[in-house]
Structure formats: structure tokens, C-alpha cells
Amino acid sequence: MTRKARRSYTSKKEKQPNRVPVDKKLDNNLTWGISLMSLEGPFNWSDIKRDKYLEILKKLSGFEARTLNCILGGNSHGISIDKISKIARKELINRKLDDNDRLISLRVSGKERIWGIRYGKNHFKVLWWDPEHEVCPSSKRHT
Questions:
Q1: Rounded Cα–Cα distance for residues 122 and 109 (Å)
Q2: Which of 35, 42, 101, 107 is the most buried (most CB within 10 A)?
Q3: In sequence order, which ranges of 13-139 are alpha helices (DSSP H)?
Q4: Does a structural domain hold residue 77?
């Protein structure tokens, strides 16, 4: 039995790595930081049930496809530090974060809010979980 000669598969072109096209719009999408996330105190993230975490993560994932400027307006907005509750202000002082003049409130649903600090154009550092809208109480119903 005779063997067939092997063919040589050499490419004249040098291989190039696949490159993912850079979408300039992605540079403006919201990014998250969790280093300031409160694990103790009145607005902590430690006592949340699994189902609620999943709901929050789904909401945050939806926010990532947008810019912070797109998200802000209506029920998600910036709030001056002088308008938040005394308890919230005390938390900022205790954590040495009282040098910020505004916080960002992101609406999850109904009364539920995620509070954080904006850094740069589109970076949001998560701070508090506020299920009862107590960081900045509103006189409006269901907000």
C-alpha cells in the first residue's frame, strides 16, 4: 500500500489576531464601582434576600446599556447633600464621604433606590440600598 504525500498548508499571509471593533459609544456607557458599598449601617446591602439581589442586578444590567445622563431625569436623579436625611448625612460623615456635594439616586422600583456617587462622566460608585426611600424622603406617593 502506498501512502499519499502530505500537502503543505502554508499561508502566504501572516496570521492576524481577530480584533473586536471598538464602539465609541461604549466609552460613554455607565460603569459601576462597589468599593464604597455599605455593608453595615441603616442603608446596608447585607440584609437583602436573594430574589431582590437578582432583581437589582437585572436593573443595573439594563442601566449599563445607557449613559448616566440618559438615566438621570424623572425618578433617577442627583440630590444635593443638604436635602438628604440626617441619618444619611451622618453616614457620609462617618465614612469621610461628606466632601461630595451631590449623590445620585437610581430608582429600582416603587420606593426602592440605589444611592451612589458619580465620578467622572459615567462612573457610578454604589453606596447604599434604600428600600423604603428613607435617604431622601419624598412627600409624593409611591416614590
A1: 22
A2: 107
A3: 50-63, 68-71, 86-94
A4: yes
Spatial contact of 58 and 112, defined as CB atoms under 8 Å apart: no
Residue 86 lies in a domain: yes
Task: Give CA–CA dist 116/103, Å, rounded.
Answer: 6
Which range of residues forms the domain containing residue 79? 37-130
CB 105 within 8 A of CB 68: no
Establish if 84 belongs to a structural domain.
Answer: yes
Q: What is the pLDDT of residue 82?
A: 94
The single-letter code of the amino acid at 15 is: K
Q: For the chain, how long is the longest CA-to-CA vector?
A: 92
Tell me what percent of the residues of the chain surpass a pLDDT of 70. 78
Report pLDDT for 26.
Answer: 45
Indicate the number of domains in the chain: 1
CB 124 within 8 A of CB 118: yes
